[in-house]
């Protein structure tokens, strides 16, 4: 069977390829958009905006304290960090592309004249990006 440009098989194949490209671009844009939202929330010290993207349970490490917390507990711990640390600068250092249903971003954060490294890991769960790990060291 020959697939010529006018055949319905060719048209169906091209349509399928275009749909896959659109889905891939949409996913990449959503990933970039969420990373930008997290960056802005870090800059403004908005724990609630960050925690709304937490998975049901999240691994948190802030300074020297680390643990596995519920979404609500994670928000409270992050709020305490922002309350006691005035954020003056946040700079994106690295962001990876989605691979094996996860990706991460690394930032440099300055607060109270101290420098911190921020690591945020996202997992794709049920088609949605969720923060499963957040470290501020």
Architecture overview:
- This protein has one domain: Nuclear Transport Factor 2, Chain: A.
- It contains three helices and six strands; from the N terminus they run H-H-E-E-H-E-E-E-E.
- Residues 24-32 have low confidence and may be disordered.
- The protein is elongated, with a radius of gyration of 20 Å.
- Helix content is 41%, strand content 40%.
Describe the structure concisely.
This protein is an alpha+beta fold and 137 residues long.
Main attributes of the structure:
6 strands; Nuclear Transport Factor 2, Chain: A; alpha+beta; 137 residues; six-stranded mixed β-sheet
Q: Structural class, from helix and strand content?
A: alpha+beta
Query: What is Rg?
Result: 20 Å
Q: Low-confidence parts, pLDDT < 50 over ≥5 residues?
A: 24-32
List the domain count as a whole number: 1
List the helices and strands and how they pair.
Elements: H1 8-44, H2 47-51, E1 54-62, E2 65-70, H3 71-84, E3 87-95, E4 102-111, E5 114-125, E6 128-136
Parallel strand pairs: 1-6
Antiparallel strand pairs: 1-2, 3-4, 4-5, 5-6
